[in-house]
Amino acid sequence: MGSVTGLTWRRTALGLLVAAPPIAFVLYRTNLEEMAEALAEANYALIAAAMAAFSLAILLQALRWHYLLSNPSSVFHPVGCTPSF
Question: What integer best gives the mean pLDDT of the chain?
């Protein structure tokens, strides 16, 4: 695959530095015992169904955009609005 460049490492480090404080704040303010109880009582079948539905929605949106961008002549343009390509 190749070696990881210095830019990639800097970008990753910057992302971690930006994300760490908000995550630490949320975890600090969260009652971990209550969260553990809520997770123990969760209906994992519903969570799995929701994740599957969300994934399907993202896939359909990606397919829609792929179709629109690969075939610009098929897009409807209202009267007076002509595409610039």
Answer: 86
